[in-house]
Design brief:
The chain has one domain (2-163): 2-Layer Sandwich (STM4215-like). By secondary structure, the protein is an alpha+beta fold. 19% of the residues lie in helices and 40% in strands.
């Protein structure tokens, strides 16, 4: 599910990038993050303006219902945007818009546009919650040779349902000679209030 969600975020941004009028500017790259910012920055900025998506981690899953066969898992994804501009550091963030037309896109505009694509959107995925915006942080805001570079990362929060796989029952398997059932009577309490153990044969 994690890979499915990441791919859906990328596809959503790629679709907007390819559409007409779309974003109002063209992103040179929209991809899964593969450590690009760990490489030589001078080579990476040639792909700007760029967007990368990566998985940020999960929180503690919560059971759905008393059967505990389904769990709701909170998850965080991170979208990174990178812009460059020869005009200076401010221009990498603010960009240049003339008469309502984006001439040079800035990192702030990219963050805002991606927000419009993701906020309250479940990307059409069953069992996935609507995306909620999270913290934004600066990764780079610096000068490189004769141009300025800005890279920001923003967290996006959702949740997805994990379902216990159904395993066919083999009646000859000794594991199935006894059946144990725990009863959870208090919602949100992980302690079994009662239990039954039944011998099948």
């Amino acid at each position: 599910m994690i890979a499915t969600i990441e791919d859906a975020i990328i596809a959503r941004i790629q679709a907007a990038n390819a559409a007409t009028p779309g974003l109002g500017y063209t992103l040179a790259e929209v991809a899964s993050y593969g450590g690009e910012l760990d490489d030589e920055l001078g080579k990476v900025v040639r792909k700007f303006p760029a967007v990368w998506v990566t998985f940020g981690g999960t929180g503690k899953p919560k059971p759905l219902g008393t059967s505990r066969s389904k769990w709701l898992t909170p998850a965080t994804f991170v979208v990174m945007v990178g812009a460059r501009n020869v005009r200076g550091e401010r221009s990498t963030r603010h960009g240049l818009t003339v008469g309502g037309v984006v001439k040079e896109v800035g990192a702030y505009q990219m963050l805002e546009d991606i927000g419009l694509l993701l906020i309250n959107n479940d990307l059409g995925l069953a069992g996935v919650g609507h995306f909620k915006p999270g913290a934004t942080r600066t990764l780079y805001n610096t000068k490189l040779n004769n141009q300025a570079v800005a890279v920001f990362a923003r967290e996006w929060h959702t949740e997805f349902v994990e379902t216990e796989p159904r395993v066919p029952i083999d009646p000859t398997d000794p594991m199935w000679l006894k059946l144990g059932i725990n009863y959870y009577l208090k919602p949100g309490d992980d302690v079994a209030d009662a239990a039954d153990l039944t011998t099948l044969r």
